[in-house]
Amino acid sequence: MTRVIVFLLLISITTFGQTVQLNTDPIERIKDEGLNRSELIKTLTYLTDVIGPRLTNSPNYRRASVWTRDQLTSWGLKNAHLEPFGPFGRGWELKRFSAQVIEPQDIPLIAYPLAWSPATNGELVADIVYLDAASEADFSKFKGQLNGKIVLLDGVRKVEAHFEPLGRRWNDFDMLQYATDQPYPPGNPDLGPPPSPEQLQRGRFRAARLRFAFDEGAALVLSPAGAEFDGGTINAQAAEVPLAHDGKRIRAAEKDAKTLPQVVVSVEQYNRMVRMIQAGEKVRAAFDLAVKFYDDDLMSSHTIAEIPGGDLKDEVVMMGAHLDSWHSGTGATDNGAGVAVMMEAARIIQTLQLKPRRTIRVALWGGEENFGGSRFYVRDHFGHCERTTGNKCTLVKKPEYDRLSAYLNLDAGTGKVRGVFLSHNEALRPVLRPWIEPFRSMGVSTLTINGDWGSDFYFFDEIGIPIVNFIQDEIEYDTRTHHTNQDVFDRIQPDDLKQAAVVVAAFAYQIAMRDEKLPHRPM
Ligand SMILES: [Zn+2]
């Protein structure tokens, strides 16, 4: 009896609802679902605040892999699984850390160890020595002086006042520049400019200082926060392994890597330590660094899930972002944001039962940072370049190559989408142009001929798969959050990411629906 009444009630509500808003345009429905019933912030909160930083192969990373797979399954995606890649190397987890100057006065330090740093094996109390060397010839002054000491590897880094805001959106002038950019010259432009001779020399000298400190038995080395970061913001990536005497380079994540504990300190405090020593003070500090390595499984995995297609189900549209992050923040803008957007875009299409013609496949990549983990997936599924003279790519295709229409990528922080990098594929312009129109009032306006650099799309682009990589507002990416201890949930712009999710969902849907696959760029 009760059942019948509830049933009748539901019909009348539904009927009423349909007469009020009968919206059949899939793009408008995507906007409505993504802006009014978004699950994105819930997803991102769980990834960042609950799971936390997701260094590849750490316990947090593995937890995030399982959680994202199960979450995508719970929304109705099919074939959700963890696809192995590697070997990547060891997992690493920070168990405990404290850092404090204790003489001639007490100064608690804003500091963070670099990933894969070994432990100090209990509290280390030692003098701080400033390796004051302008060139390798100066090392002789420090021979026998560094054993068991805490060593400052760098000099004072100048701190500038901030006269510009830390956060910004692209203005009309910026967008016009994107729109009218000259194509970069051919070659691998999307890898960014090659290092200058001065940069190469600085890198070599830095490596020599680390090698010297290691050989001399230093207990721990300190560096100041790099790039433009100050005010307590620290950028912490992977520890370095001293270059072998034969010049061989290995990553700290590799199983047999031998290095020493490495800590980055807020630039103002680092500079003070250098100046205190230069003024003749004897500076001592206490560091306690406990870590855990996981080397039982050196393989890692990507999270993969699908919305099966209809009449063209054997063809695929892929969209991805990287699940791994650095360890001092919670990987909110790099790249929890992209992961939450891709998951939300898939949820929207699935929830609305839009029934794409092609299969839409979501990939949440592992090992993007410092490793390029997605290259394994691309090689296993689609193909690779054999490089011949002149670095020319001879494409070696897998059968799946011709069934992949495009790869969509988002990995530039928390900013909303402003357009698309055509990645040197001029043939995409007339296809994408009309798809921008429904989002013009939401800030999407521009197609730029060039590509961005430095994310998972690179490996797809390298073998000529059409790339849809989104231009995003900068917000505070390079000034505050990129690879830093401030890459946390509170730096997220929720409305920007909701916008990004509906744009990505709409583009993925359009690519999945059109009669042809997307056109390729000339190789
Ligand atoms: Zn990233």
Describe the protein in words.
32% of the residues lie in helices and 22% in strands. The chain is of the alpha/beta class. It folds into two domains: 22-88 and 299-513, Zn peptidases (Aminopeptidase); 91-171 and 185-294, Glucose Oxidase, domain 1, CATH 3.50.30. Bound molecules: zinc ion. Zinc ion binds next to helix 8.
CATH superfamily of the largest domain: Zn peptidases
Bound molecules: zinc ion
DSSP strand (E) fraction? 15-25%
The low-confidence parts are 1-19
CATH topology title of the largest domain:
Aminopeptidase
Number of domains: 2
Please summarize what this structure is.
The longest helix is centred in the middle third of the chain and has 20 residues. It contains 13 helices and 18 strands. It is of the alpha/beta class.
Name some characteristics of this structure.
single chain, 523 residues, alpha/beta, Aminopeptidase, Glucose Oxidase, domain 1, 2 domains, eight-stranded mixed β-sheet, 18 strands, disordered N terminus, binds zinc ion
Helix-strand layout with pairing:
Blueprint lengths: L1 H19 L5 H11 L3 H12 L7 H16 L3 E8 L5 E13 L3 E2 L2 E3 L10 E7 L19 E3 L19 H9 L16 H19 L4 E5 L37 E4 L1 H12 L5 E11 L5 E8 L4 E11 L9 H20 L6 E8 L8 H8 L1 E5 L5 E5 L6 E6 L7 E5 L7 H8 L9 E3 L8 H6 L4 E6 L4 H5 L12 H20 L10
Parallel strand pairs: 5-6, 6-7, 7-8, 11-12, 11-15, 15-18, 16-17
Antiparallel strand pairs: 1-10, 2-3, 2-9, 4-8, 5-9, 10-12, 13-14, 16-18
Helix pairs in contact: 2-13, 3-8, 8-13
The structure holds zinc ion.
Zinc ion binds next to helix 8.
